[in-house]
Input
Amino acid sequence: MFVHDDLDSVDTECWDAHMDVNARSPMLMIRALNQQLDDDGRACVVNVLDQKIAEPNPDHLSYTASRYAMLGLTDALARGLAPRIRVNAVAPGHTMPSDDQSEAGFARAQSDTPLGRGPTPEDVADAVSYLMGAEAVTGQVLFVDSGERFLSRARDVLFETE
Output
């Protein structure tokens, strides 16, 4: 879930909806995996975060808080579920256009990165694939953002590229 709010507009309904979809549901799925795994079974979870966790701004406040909740869960569960379940995460940059974003704004957001291109869904899938196979890796966040987190944006990319 990705709905815009900020400190002045946030309400409990939007906050709870973001937390339910972006943090609680993944945590419940991980719990179900842990409960069904045989005693000698092994598994891997890759959570989806957002590059905003490295350089937050006050836009999309409920969304950002839900991503921080998943960051904390990734760390806590990587520690608590090892060695049976490895828990990692990917933190994509601007991979798909926002609902309110124009094609030109999306193209600008993609090209205004240190690498001069934005990540594609395939780039994110490649990172997930790597983490799934990296049997000596747990508790890590792999940024797939073309360096977008280094831009130190004061506002969400949507507002800075439109």
Notes: The longest strand covers residues 85-92. The chain has one domain: 12-161. The first helix runs from residue 12 to 36. The mean pLDDT is 94.
